[in-house]
Amino acid sequence: MVRNTSNLVSFRRRDEKPPQNEDGVSSNKACKAYNSVLELVGNTPLVKLNRLPLEHGVKCEVYAKCEFINPGGSIKDRIALAMMQDARKDGVVHDQTEFVEVTSGNTGIGIALNATLMGNKCIIVTQDKNSSEKVNTMRLLGAEFDNEINPRAHYENTGEEIVAALGSVDVLVLGAGSGGTLSGVGSKLKEVNPDCKLVAAEPDGSVMINKDGNPHPFLVEGIGGSEAPIILDKSLVDHVEVVTDKESFLMARELSKKEGLLCGGSSGAAVCAAFKAAKSLNIGHGKRVVVILPDGIRNYMSKFVSDQWMEAHRFLEPPQHTMKWWTKPVSDLNLNREYPKMTSKSTCHQVLEAMNETNVNIAVIVDDNGHYIGAVSKDSLRNRATNPTKLPGQVSEEYDFQDVVTDHLDKHVYTLADNIPEDTTIGLLSRVLDITPYVVIVTKDSNNSAFCTPSKVVTGDDVLDYIFESSKTIN
Ligand SMILES: Cc1ncc(COP(=O)(O)O)c(C=O)c1O
């Protein structure tokens, strides 16, 4: 068979010039071989946002520093590498050293990545509940929040890279967790251009920088808090933009969809703050804004990346399906199974006995006033009992069923309020049940929306039974 090769892949001839972009710059990315993945930490690309600024009515140039390109997936690879190299240089670390890091987040991943490549052991102490014992243990182990190598790594590397790529920058926008990035990059950019404005993206609910804020829990991870860490140099901050969870996650999703930047929620918060600041501070045409995107979507696949998660938190509306039952109220379901309601003083032992007596596998926990505190399932108790916390050299602890149940509540329990009409369609409930085994139906307190009283528990079986029974009458 004779093929027309012109339709197949054409190879560039040796004497042809390499492809160039409009500026005459070679568009071939530097192709290089590396000795270790650690050589890939830092030197992250700065990428101009093309669609989003226009769509949000912003005229300045916005460049994103893509820290999710780091091998561990976040900006924290930089400080992990810098801290560990520094410790090696000073002789504090040798081949037998075990690293201990107190975090469940990106710094832990950075430390683990570096440790494994340096051939060192590493222990990550995760923080699954904020008991004072755990906080004290963290302090004892030396959490990284006051390590001055953190801002220095950003001053010498992250900041320097931005200057090398863009020269003088007019505005820097970023969130603060430990404050290392803000202090390090902020100092560098202000040193190069003393008129550079630093805009802090503060999650709504955080009072780390915005002392006038109303403190309350928020979902964006990695930034914000109740107190400013020692290494956060607040004097560098010229302006604060408060960003809600909804704004942050919607912007992070837009960054993926419209700019191809698969970044996390704190990146969405920073870009949102940049657009708000461009308007409130009149940052117009010709001005150059740099926004830091600290991590990628990998950590959030079951969170804001999921439509159902966004809907469960009322950040997106559920799809408008046309099945007859979709818009029916949850009160139409046949929910006559009784789940035990236990007080917060109950032990796991008592709660399990109550579940066994009523032949169910979920219990709801309330305070002395009957207000909802949380819920616990047999499955999560089983999970804890069979996966004990164990440091190397320690014996595995037997599960203590005499522990108070509030220390063992299920982590992500979703509630829907039966006195908020749009909350209670079976359609929305079925979406939430796509990502969780059960939902607690509550009644919001009319005087104080922070309180609610639990009324029912719904599982996926209840919804299926309802659809099945309805199908019999429809057909
Ligand atoms: C996702 C994410 N965004 C932002 C930050 C803030 O960086 P920094 O700790 O340098 O303030 C962190 C820090 O942990 C983070 O994990």
UniProtKB/TrEMBL annotation:
The protein's required cofactor(s) are namely: pyridoxal 5'-phosphate
Family per similarity comment: Belongs to the cysteine synthase/cystathionine beta-synthase family.
Protein origin, superkingdom: Eukaryota
UniProt-annotated stretches for the region Disordered: 1-27
Q: Which PROSITE patterns match?
A: CBS, CYS_SYNTHASE
Enumerate the transmembrane spans. none
Under the heading InterPro entries, the entry gives: CBS_dom, CBS_dom_sf, Cys_Synth/Cystath_Beta-Synth, P-phosphate_BS, TrpB-like_PALP, TrpB-like_PALP_sf
Per the record, the GO terms for biological process are: cysteine biosynthetic process from serine
Q: What does this protein do?
A: Hydro-lyase catalyzing the first step of the transsulfuration pathway, where the hydroxyl group of L-serine is displaced by L-homocysteine in a beta-replacement reaction to form L-cystathionine, the precursor of L-cysteine. This catabolic route allows the elimination of L-methionine and the toxic metabolite L-homocysteine. Also involved in the production of hydrogen sulfide, a gasotransmitter with signaling and cytoprotective effects on neurons.
One MF annotation (Gene Ontology) recorded for this entry = transferase activity
Q: What is this protein called?
A: CBS domain-containing protein
Q: Name one Pfam family in it.
A: PALP
Which keywords describe this protein according to UniProt? Answer: Amino-acid biosynthesis, CBS domain, Cysteine biosynthesis, Pyridoxal phosphate, Transferase
Task: List residues of the CBS domain.
Answer: 335-391
